[in-house]
Design a protein that fits this description.
single chain
Length: 265
């Protein structure tokens, strides 16, 4: 048809199977924009994906899986046992052993934080803002950032408050509660465990279920925003109403804004 405009495009196919090639990333981005994934049914794409998986991805995938499982496991152990094993009545050796999970988590956290930074650096964008936006367009990257940030907040609060309590004890002054650290840890645990679902996508049976869960979560984003707004509003109201009563009755439920938010949740 002479009336139909035609534009020629050059697709660089050289070294598309190399480890540092962005060809598959570009194809996935194009498919996501057009909502058409039939290109992956072609023999060339299936061969390329299989070659990439067998040559580079599989080993790294299971290596990251093992490290992620180890971090989540020790994070859970640390959250469940920290207050018990670090009690002032325990022997020094027990206290030292009780801090081993924390050290393991922080070492693994450093590895994944570096990996996340390198992923952000590899994003095809011109400015830092567009790099961040492009990086956070992926659901799993959002979970990674939330998980790493909440783990960092939990341990940062724990270290700062523990040092403050140690100084206060040396001066004969009462310390402060570690509740802010506990709150951050309570936020980090479910996100870190949910993040493990990423590795279940390599199997078609479990991958379909994971994608369905992601679709449901993405579908209720607006509802979650409304829920958070209402929860914070009512928590602030309960804190104002019951702050004095909590002090008189010894009830710590609404003694601080974070506790009030947690109770409202």
């Amino acid at each position: 048809d002479s009336g139909l405009p035609v534009t020629a495009k050059f697709v660089p196919l050289k070294n598309i199977a190399a480890p540092n090639s962005n060809f598959l990333r570009s194809v996935v981005e194009a498919c996501s924009m057009t909502k058409k994934y039939t290109v992956f049914e072609t023999e060339m794409m299936q061969t390329l994906v299989e070659h990439k998986w067998n040559s580079y991805v599989e080993k790294m995938f299971f290596y990251h899986l093992k490290l992620d499982l180890a971090m989540v496991f020790f994070l859970t152990v640390d959250a469940l046992t920290y207050k018990t094993v670090t009690n002032s009545d325990n022997h020094l050796a027990i206290k030292i052993i009780g801090n081993v999970p924390s050290i393991v988590v922080l070492v693994l956290w450093s590895f994944f934080a570096r990996h996340e930074y390198r992923q952000w650096q590899a994003t095809n964008a011109t400015t830092k803002f567009t790099k961040v936006k492009a990086h956070l367009d992926d659901f799993w990257n959002i979970l990674d950032v939330l998980s790493l940030s909440s783990i960092f907040a939990a341990y940062a609060c724990r270290i700062v408050l523990s040092v403050f309590n140690a100084i206060s004890a040396a001066e004969g002054v009462g310390g402060v509660s570690l509740f802010p650290s506990t709150l951050a840890m309570a936020f980090a645990l479910p996100i870190s465990w949910i993040n493990i679902l990423f590795y279940m996508q390599f199997q078609s049976e479990s991958g379909e279920l994971v994608r369905m869960i992601i679709g449901i979560i993405q579908g209720i984003k607006t509802f979650l925003v409304i829920l958070v707004i209402c929860m914070v509003g009512f928590a602030a109201s309960f804190f104002v109403l019951f702050e004095e009563q909590s002090d008189n009755d010894g009830d710590s439920t609404h003694k601080s804004p974070p506790r009030a938010i947690l109770q409202s949740y």
